[in-house]
Design a protein that fits this description.
Blueprint: H1 3-21, H2 27-40, E1 45-55, E2 58-70, E3 74-79, H3 86-99, E4 103-108, E5 118-122
Length: 123
């Protein structure tokens, strides 16, 4: 699958979740639901994928955990916050850089209309 198809499928899954549950839940609830939807869509994913941090000649294992890697091509970071701010953007861009992935989705479920909570990143 191409990146646009994958991100479209992921966004569709997130819209389905948001239509059913709405805003206001913990991130972990949306994460569980997204795993269910991705599985039903037949997409390969890894959840809470460990991301080692490289610093000079050392590697720090399990420095961070990415919410999802989908089809080995897209980093998906979920949020349930009042406002997406610069630190959230920096987080997904760092995950993309360290994992050497060219695409990322930052999805904030704590909005009244989900399209206002989606940020797509392509390198």
């Amino acid at each position: 699958m191409e990146i646009n198809e994958i991100t479209g499928e992921i966004i569709g899954c997130c819209i389905e979740i948001h239509k059913e549950l709405g805003p206001g839940l913990l991130e972990s609830a949306y994460e569980e639901c997204l795993a269910y939807e991705l599985s039903n869509a037949g997409l390969y994913f890894e959840r809470q994928k460990a991301l080692p941090v490289r610093y000079k000649e050392i590697q720090i294992e399990y420095g961070y955990r990415m919410d999802f890697i989908v089809e080995n091509q897209v980093v998906v970071e979920l949020k349930s916050v009042e406002v997406i701010n610069n630190v959230h953007t920096a987080q997904i861009l760092t995950y993309m850089r360290f994992s050497e992935m060219n695409a990322g989705l930052l999805i904030n479920f704590n909005v009244s209309v989900l399209k206002n909570g989606i940020k797509r990143f392509i390198n």
